[in-house]
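$ ./design --mode recover --in tokens.txt
reading tokens...
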């Protein structure tokens, strides 16, 4: 998806959405594909409602020297909430791809009157010039009977843009989710990928 050696992926959302699980699965899929990988998380107030972000960097050759994406160099932004996607835009390249769940989670600062949630965050994202893909990830996961799998739905969409095989993705999911949840998460991944391919 880019010409420079290291691919930088930024995941953003709020506590309780499974950002860290998704980044673990992504990093594991990269490792299974033979890439050099580094990953870091910034939890912030990671209890439900607080912002969370994770950085995943991989390279097909040579070492990845830092786990943190340099400012303005994220190639792909995977966001679990619209406002968090807007916050992540400044950390992406001008030609970056953005995958975001259409779900809105109003932060406590807005609820108590200390801020305003953007009226049209989707339009704001598109006006950034990035290639934006808005996904009904939470809805897709809920229709499968497991709304908590929205994070894996988003990975299914991201799979269209990353040089990682289907088997590596499935193995990664098996490695990071509890055994009893593997089947539903694999189904969520496939549903996310199919939802995106259908729209192409």
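writing sequence...
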């Amino acid at each position: 998806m880019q010409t420079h050696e290291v691919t930088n992926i930024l995941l953003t959302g709020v506590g309780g959405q499974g950002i860290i699980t998704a980044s673990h699965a992504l990093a594991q899929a990269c490792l299974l594909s033979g890439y050099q990988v580094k990953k870091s998380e910034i939890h912030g107030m990671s209890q439900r409602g607080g912002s969370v972000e994770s950085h995943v960097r991989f390279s097909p050759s040579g070492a990845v020297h830092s786990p943190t994406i340099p400012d303005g160099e994220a190639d792909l932004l995977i966001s679990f909430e619209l406002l968090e996607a807007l916050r992540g835009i400044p950390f992406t390249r001008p030609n970056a791809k953005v995958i975001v769940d259409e779900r809105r989670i109003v932060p406590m600062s807005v609820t108590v009157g200390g801020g305003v949630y953007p009226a049209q965050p989707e339009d704001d994202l598109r006006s950034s010039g990035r290639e934006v893909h808005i996904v009904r990830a939470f809805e897709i996961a809920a229709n499968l009977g497991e709304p908590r799998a929205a994070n894996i739905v988003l990975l299914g969409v991201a799979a269209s843009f990353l040089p990682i095989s289907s088997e590596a993705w499935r193995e990664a999911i098996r490695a990071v989710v509890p055994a009893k949840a593997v089947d539903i998460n694999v189904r969520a991944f496939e549903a996310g990928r199919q939802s995106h391919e259908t729209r192409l």
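exit 0
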